[in-house]
Amino acid sequence: MHTETTIAPVPVWTNEALCAQTGAEFFFPEPGSSVRDAKRICALCPIRPACLEYALANDERFGVWGGLSEKERLALRRGTR
Predict the structure, then answer these.
(1) Which of 1, 14, 56, 57 sits in a 20 to 30 Å window from 8, CA-based?
(2) Start and end of every 4Fe-4S Wbl-type domain (predicted)?
């Protein structure tokens, strides 16, 4: 039995994202590490709203997306933020 994995196309806005010009270690830190640096970079990024929208629409569960951590995105989805 052969199963195919489909990969969603990379959104065009990622070309302008500051995270694309920075190391992934800021946005996907080791458990227990600070996300402060990632949030600082996100705060300066012109496409932060599109990034957050993408993360919420695609249920991204890891890393910092659109300036929010996993826990912050979960709280936003649940309406507790």
Answers:
(1) 1
(2) 18-75
